[in-house]
Amino acid sequence: MATITSTGLGSGLDVSSIVSALMSVEKRPLTLMQQAKTDLNTQLSAIGKLQSMTSAMRDAANTLSSVTLWNQTKASSSDAASVGVATDAAAASGTYNVNVSRLAVGQTISSRAFTNAQSTLGEGTLTIELGSWTGEPTPTGFTAKTGATPVAVTIGPDDTTLEKVRDKINAAGAGVTATIVNDASGARLALRSSETGAENAFRISASETSDDGVAGDGLSALAFDAAEVVPDGGTAVSQMLRNQTAVNAQATINGIAITSASNKLEGVADGLTLTLLKTTTGDVEVGVKPDDDAVKTAVTTFTKAFNDLAAYIRDQTKYDAATKTGGTLQGDRTAGGLQAQLRGVINAASTASSVFTRLSDMGIAMKADGTLETNSTKLDAALANRAEMRKALATDGTDRAGSGFMDRFRDLGNALLDTTGALTTRTSSLQSMITRNQKSQDAMTLRLEQTEKRLNAQYQALDTNMAKLSGLSNYLSGQLASITNFNNN
């Protein structure tokens, strides 16, 4: 609003200081508006933090009300190095005795020794088939795996070295993995099943582009058929050596024999997954029980969220008699109402459980400062009666009295944060007040600019007129002095 003027130059009147002093008085309402806006913004920030903390409390209460939490189980194994265990929400409490007599493994085979990984085998096609051998331990036939199809691996003119053949097999996705093993004899191509189990054994047939008729040369050196026999009915022979036979896992669970192509036994009992890691000489006890630790963690999370909210309300609404100052939300009905509602949920008994009618019965009690504390001994005792504790906390009743405490807290949080809830409407109200305040400031600023221009114009005119009067006064004084001098002479 600064205006460049020349007032005061003619009369000696300090017009700038006069206008500045007058404007400081005129600006007082604007200063009050600016302070009011600052206060409103501070309140808006405080209400926003209340919303965030209420949301955290609501979410923590929702966790304690959820089916997922109360159905959560925890599994244990008396020999976790031999039998691993995991559960999901469908798992039922129980004890299982697991004895592992054999682990599932895949088939492995290896070739004869070649000079090195750059040794060439020639062009042609390797056909790999997944399936199981019949007549083990001396196979007499091969049964293709249901749903699997033979995979043809073409070995072109640029793919004839041992290492290139390895790469082509690995890229084919045929259900086998190839590696090169080097020893004192040279380089050997080793292949193994990508998955365990008898049905994931494999056989390999070789077709050479130029067949020299020698089975041990070229691609035919990589052929494998465990059921191939010499014409005179001798023992099984093949160009590749079978180092490990593909077999299924064998175990007993509570005396019931189980076989599996995988060492991961899913669905052997509702919601229970066992991972077989080693064979055992006796039973491994696997236990499944409700996960009380998960409930304790959820209680701790809720208690912290509640206490953060309660402490913030207390700090924001308190009055400091020593400094004669109040908190940002001191006297705010929304904050005061929220504090009363939180205490009301805790203080009102629940009929959801016939055993636990108050939160304090489960070890969650309110202290004098309005925050909660947990008695671990009472909480453990309540968890021993898990079904009743669940009712007391999580029941979604038809009315407030018949609802669980956490269900009440969740509903309270939802109501406060709803589009028509107290915290949401309070936020909207403060935002509207801030908008109106700013509009008033803008209008006041415009009026002050106009007032300053008017005062400068008025005092500039006054300064001019005073300068004229001063000049006239000087003229008259000069004339009078002349007359006096003339008469005296």
Task: Give structural notes.
This protein is α+β, with helices and mostly antiparallel strands and 489 residues long. It has 3 domains: 28-69 and 293-424; 73-104 and 249-290, no CATH class; 108-244, no CATH class. Helix content is 42%, strand content 22%. The strands form 6 sheets. Strands 1-16-3-12-13 form a 5-stranded antiparallel β-sheet, with no helix packed on it. The chain has a 4-stranded antiparallel β-sheet with strand order 8-9-4-11, with helices on one face. Strands 5, 6, 7 and 10 form a 4-stranded antiparallel β-sheet that branches. Strand 17 (319-320) and strand 18 form a beta hairpin. Helix 2 packs antiparallel against helix 5, helix 2 runs antiparallel to helix 10 and helix 5 packs antiparallel against helix 6 (333-347). The radius of gyration is 46 Å and the shape is elongated. The two termini are 60 Å apart.
Going by helix content, strand content and strand pairing, the class is alpha+beta
Count, helices:
10
Strands in their spatial order, largest beta sheet = 1-16-3-12-13
* Rg from alpha-carbon coordinates: 46 Å
Shape: elongated
Number of domains: 3
Largest sheet: 5 strands, antiparallel
Q: Poorly predicted ranges (pLDDT <50, ≥5 residues)?
A: 1-9, 230-236
Mean pLDDT: 89
- What share of the residues lie within helices? 40-55%
Termini Cα gap? 60 Å
Beta strand count? 20
